[in-house]
Amino acid sequence: MRGGAWIGLFPTDRPVSLPPDLTPLLGERSVLVALIRYLEGTLRYDECIVGSLVRYGALPGVYIEHIWVDSLPSLRGGRAIWGLPKQLARFTWHGSEVAIADADGPIATLSVDTSVALLPRLPLPIPLFGCRDRRRVFAVAGASARIGRAGMQIFHWSDRFGYRISHAPTLAIGLKPFRLSIPAPRSLADLGLSTLDCSDSAQHSATNM
Q: FRET partner for 27 with CA separation of 20 to 30 A, picked from 10, 12, 53, 144?
């Protein structure tokens, strides 16, 4: 799939809870926010991710706590293949600003730098964790992108998250444009790693569906 993505690391005013089998990489008071527009490829849709940089033992990756999309096929695929808590939302764009809302009301309003990056395209592997059939799963998405300024700012943040975040990120990048291929995940047990039952985190995700 191809499109544009903006990824920012934001400090929080409270610790962010994680499943018991995952450990935060950058402390408990930070959250990763990603806004992605898939404009070409298998599916075309908008997506917003709220998650954390974590590790399972020595294995690093991204844990996705919340994820909203405006595509029903993407929602069904994300739940069936990854066990991700995908939910439907509306993405209303006005220039470089987008308001995201679902049936429960506003989620977030963000602005980003939508200009095309000028740097050469670089490879960018993205390790991801999921939980499917009570087992922790993992995959590395293969990406390449022109990396540029994200210009990411958040003007509204829903109270449903249980923590507040700063208006601007401490670190952010824009992938403008990017190419992305996401393989089916594999169980960590199949990779030779001892695993815990991740049903607690799966149940936590199910409450957000």
A: 144
Alpha carbons 43 and 53: distance in angstroms, whole number: 26
Q: How many helices (H) and strands (E) does the chain have?
A: 2, 15
Phi, psi of 89 (to 5 degrees): -150, 165
Instruction: Please report the DSSP string for 115-131 in residue order.
Output: SPP-SPPEE--EEEEEE
- Rounded to whole angstroms, the Cα distance separating 127 from 43 reads 21
Contact 159, 167 (CB under 8 A): no
The β-bridge relationship of strands 30-40 and 2-11 is antiparallel
- Burial class (CB within 10 angstroms; exposed 0-12, middle 13-18, buried 19+) of 48: buried
**Residue 178 amino acid letter:** F
pLDDT per residue as tens digits for the range 13-59: 999 999 999 999 999 999 999 999 999 988 899 999 999 999 999 99
